[in-house]
Design goal:
Blueprint: H1 7-31, H2 34-59, H3 75-104, H4 113-141, H5 146-152, H6 157-185, H7 189-218, H8 224-234, E1 240-252, E2 255-264, H9 270-287, E3 291-299, H10 303-310
Parallel strand pairs: 2-3
Antiparallel strand pairs: 1-2
Length: about 300
């Protein structure tokens, strides 16, 4: 699976959310709808989140330094984790609080055409953003289900935008339902209930994002297909006779560390071993181009030692 950052999807989401946030704030001022205020803050938080993703992608491109010899690829994971925190606190918790206040102190919605019109516009704009994210994701996910794609993707940007856009669309439907019921019944409590539902939805999405990004921050191994390709590439049956054991680690979405102990023939000279290692590294990079940091340790295969290392 490619580790594309999905910049097009991020920019599309950012443009949509900025326009939607402005429209929702205007609708809140004229209507007094708490759902509109919660949705406006949600869109504003999403805009900040897309800005964080773009900033993380930019900072991750910095060259390695003596203090950070493996580069800054993991900055993308850090900023994606910050997105989940912003979504939880600014988006989810604020919406729950605002909804609770509206349920406790309900009031009728004024100028109903403002929130209804803006919500319809927002659904169209978010739908365009969601469509862009789906299109870019489809180029990467292959035969994976959407759940598997979110869980396995090593680049955090597309899963974040996908979940944000999905949450935004569902939130807009909830807001429209809350506003609609408040207008039909004349009871502003429904507007508050819709707002609380939006907050709960955002909190759930934020928790999912935090859990997935935490796993990336801790350090994930290469995917199953990549591991299989690397294993097949290492052994040539002549100079490298066996893979004793191997560890892989993502240093960033587009950089993989490979460390392995390989078996060579006991009568090989130092020059032959060095040549075998160089050839194995070249085969690994041909098979998995993102395997940029490779450490291969030659050894004489011992079944007893191999069992101890894999225990």
């Amino acid at each position: 699976m490619s580790a594309s950052g999905g910049t097009k999807a991020i920019v599309a989401a950012l443009a949509a959310n900025l326009a939607i946030a402005a429209a929702k704030f205007v609708a809140f001022v004229f209507s007094g709808s708490s759902s509109m205020l919660a949705e406006a803050v949600h869109s504003l938080a999403d805009s900040g989140n897309q800005g964080l993703l773009l900033l993380g992608g930019k900072r991750a491109q910095r060259e390695a330094t003596p203090q950070h010899p493996f580069g800054y690829g993991r900055e993308r994971y850090i900023y994606a984790f910050l997105v989940s925190i912003v979504l939880f606190s600014v988006g989810g918790m604020f919406a729950v609080y605002e909804g609770y206040e509206k349920i406790k102190h309900p009031h009728e919605i004024e100028a109903w055409y403002w929130p209804v019109g803006v919500l319809v516009f927002a659904i169209i704009a978010e739908g365009f953003s969601f469509r862009t994210a789906i299109k870019e994701s489809n180029e990467l996910r292959g035969s994976l289900s959407w759940k598997e794609f979110v869980r396995r993707a090593k680049a955090p940007e597309l899963p974040v935008v996908l979940l944000e856009d999905f949450g935004a669309l569902v939130g807009l439907v909830l807001a429209l339902g809350g506003v609609g019921l408040a207008l039909l019944t004349g009871d502003g409590v429904w507007d508050g209930i819709g707002t609380v539902c939006i907050g709960v939805l955002l909190i759930v999405i934020a928790i999912v994002l935090a859990a997935e990004t935490k796993s990336l921050l801790l350090g994930e191994a290469a995917g199953i297909e990549q591991v299989k390709k690397i294993e097949e590439a290492i052994v040539d049956g002549e100079t490298v006779t066996r893979l004793i054991h191997m560890r892989t680690l993502h240093l960033g979405p587009e950089e993989l560390l490979v460390a392995a102990k390989i078996a060579v023939r006991h009568d090989d000279t130092a020059a032959e071993v060095a040549t075998a290692i160089d050839a194995a590294e070249a085969r690994i990079r041909d098979a998995v181009p993102i395997a940029r940091v490779i450490y291969l340790e030659p050894d004489i295969y011992s079944e007893k030692a191999a069992r101890a290392n894999n225990a």
